[in-house]
């Protein structure tokens, strides 16, 4: 029996430089895909996967994301008075249950590994999930739910993976694959942002992880890796050989909403899948394509 995953960390303290000027004031996790901010998709996915405790790692002085995840009392009163039930539900239904959300501050953006390490006290030696909200996955069941099911069989560390074009490996953590069975790839090593010629495979980690607390022990060392940042991939790599490490080829489509093109495509794909918009979207886009 593996220990269940009930905690999820949402690192949202990055600078978001690829999305300036939009991210000068508004964190990228609040940018909407159709009409829902990225953080809301991430929270929905976590709750659907059975997560009970949500840990937000925010930048110093940043409180817009946590405010978004709280009740907006005054607005709720107005919507209720005006009989706008649908609109009211749209701002209340997806909120984390009372007491389930905690925020910690990453005082400097030293890297994803450091952001996750900032949540160490709250993770408290339990297995935990990490969701990067700017990697948006369109999937049913959700990507994290698929991973939780796989983790029930494999235990250890499980990351969501997909093949990327070889020329893009330098943007990802890449698996050195030992063996594959079904949708699972067992790794014997990991490389962060390898040059395409040196990448051990094209199987790349996207922003979904289920990790054992041992990973945090390696992050304690605060060692810098690629890009002079404290890398989560490096800490995960150090657990290989001690803890099983698997990549899951999840079912669904992933959109890298941390870059402009990925964000635009996500908006089109999510709009096309919507009953209220899908019919019109091809028609209105046709003149531009
Ligand atoms: P990115 O690599 O997308 O970096 O971070 P970024 O700073 O957000 O964006 P760019 O590259 O400047 O455009 C991946 C995830 O890790 C978080 C980000 O918020 C994002 O969810 N992160 C990154 C942190 O929380 N802290 C960090 O120090 C770095």
Quick recap of the structure?
With 289 residues, the protein is of the alpha/beta class. The protein has helices spanning 38-48, 64-68, 73-81, 85-92, 112-117, 120-123, 143-154, 214-219, 232-239, 260-272, 278-285; strands spanning 7-11, 32-33, 36-37, 53-59, 101-106, 128-131, 135-138, 157-163, 173-181, 184-192, 203-211, 245-249, 253-256. A nine-stranded mixed beta sheet has the order 5-4-1-6-11-8-12-10-9. Strands 2-3 form a two-stranded antiparallel sheet. The protein has a two-stranded antiparallel ribbon with strand order 7-13.
Please tell me about this protein's structure.
With 289 residues, this protein is of the alpha/beta class. It folds into two domains: 7-258, Spore Coat Polysaccharide Biosynthesis Protein SpsA, Chain A (Alpha-Beta Complex), CATH 3.90.550; 259-289. The protein contains eleven helices and 13 strands. It has helices spanning 38-48, 64-68, 73-81, 85-92, 112-117, 120-123, 143-154, 214-219, 232-239, 260-272, 278-285, and strands at residues 7-11, 32-33, 36-37, 53-59, 101-106, 128-131, 135-138, 157-163, 173-181, 184-192, 203-211, 245-249, 253-256. α3 packs antiparallel against α4 and α10 (260-272) crosses α11 (278-285). The longest helix has 13 residues, at 260-272.
Question: Helices and strands in order, then pairings?
Answer:
Blueprint: E1 7-11, E2 32-33, E3 36-37, H1 38-48, E4 53-59, H2 64-68, H3 73-81, H4 85-92, E5 101-106, H5 112-117, H6 120-123, E6 128-131, E7 135-138, H7 143-154, E8 157-163, E9 173-181, E10 184-192, E11 203-211, H8 214-219, H9 232-239, E12 245-249, E13 253-256, H10 260-272, H11 278-285
Parallel strand pairs: 1-4, 1-6, 4-5, 8-12
Antiparallel strand pairs: 2-3, 6-11, 7-13, 8-11, 9-10, 10-12
Helix pairs in contact: 3-4, 10-11
The structure holds uridine 5'-triphosphate (UTP).
């Amino acid at each position: 029996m593996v220990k269940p995953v009930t905690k999820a960390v949402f690192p949202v303290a990055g600078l978001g430089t690829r999305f300036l000027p939009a991210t000068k004031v508004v964190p990228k996790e609040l940018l909407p895909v159709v009409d829902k901010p990225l953080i809301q998709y991430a929270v929905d996915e976590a709750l659907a996967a059975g997560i009970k405790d949500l840990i937000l790692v925010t930048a110093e002085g940043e409180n817009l994301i946590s405010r978004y995840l709280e009740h907006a009392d005054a607005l709720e009163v107005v919507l209720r008075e005006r009989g706008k039930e649908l609109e009211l539900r749209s701002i209340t239904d997806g909120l984390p249950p009372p007491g389930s959300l905690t925020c910690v501050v990453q005082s400097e953006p030293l890297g994803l590994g450091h952001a996750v390490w900032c949540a160490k006290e709250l993770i408290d030696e339990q297995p935990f999930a990490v969701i990067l909200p700017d990697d948006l996955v369109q999937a049913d069941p959700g990507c994290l739910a698929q991973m939780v099911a796989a983790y029930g069989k494999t235990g250890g560390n499980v990351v969501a993976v997909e093949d990327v074009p070889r020329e893009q490996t330098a943007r990802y953590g890449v698996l050195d694959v030992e063996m594959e069975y079904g949708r699972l790839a067992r790794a014997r090593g990991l490389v962060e942002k390898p040059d395409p010629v040196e990448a051990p495979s094209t199987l790349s980690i996207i922003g979904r992880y289920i990790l054992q607390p041992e990973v945090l022990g390696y992050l304690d060392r605060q060692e810098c890796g690629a890009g002079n940042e404290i890398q989560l991939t490096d800490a995960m790599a150090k657990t290989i050989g001690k803890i099983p490490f698997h990549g899951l080829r999840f079912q669904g489509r992933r959109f890298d909403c941390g870059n402009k093109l990925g964000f635009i495509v996500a908006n089109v794909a999510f709009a096309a899948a919507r009953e209220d918009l899908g019919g019109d979207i091809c028609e209105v886009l046709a003149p531009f394509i």
